[in-house]
Amino acid sequence: MAYEHEITICLGSSCFSRGNKSTLHAIKNYLEKSQLTERVYFHGAHCYGNCDKGPVMKVDDKMYENVSENQVSAILDEYFS
Ligand code: FES
Q1: Is 12 in the pocket of ligand 1 (CB under 6 A)?
Q2: pLDDT tens track for 54-73
Q3: Nearest CA to ligand 1 atom 1
């Protein structure tokens, strides 16, 4: 089965230490609670070279900057609500 969306979270050291460690868990929880794990390809990525705008994550081709775990629901609701 093909995935409908792709979520990528930066796991480079800057983004990871500035919040993506928590954001990663928030995304995972969101996908599990919403039963989206079969529809969404969620994975980590190396540094995008955007560290000054980090923490960053991407949904499909759209990059989100300065992301915190509190914003995860609002961002993902745009795609899945
Ligand atoms: S560590 Fe995330 S953009 Fe560089």
Answers
A1: yes
A2: 999 999 999 999 999 999 99
A3: 12
Q: Give the mean pLDDT of 46-58.
A: 97
**pLDDT score, position 81:** 87
* Spatial separation of the C-alpha atoms in residues 54 and 33, rounded to whole Å: 26
Cβ of 51 below 6 Å from ligand 1 = yes
Nearest to 57 by CA among 1, 4, 18: 18
Can you name the CATH fold of 5-80?
Answer: Glutaredoxin (3.40.30)
14 CA: nearest ligand 1 atom = 1
Domain ranges of the chain: 5-80
Q: Specify the pLDDT at position 59.
A: 98
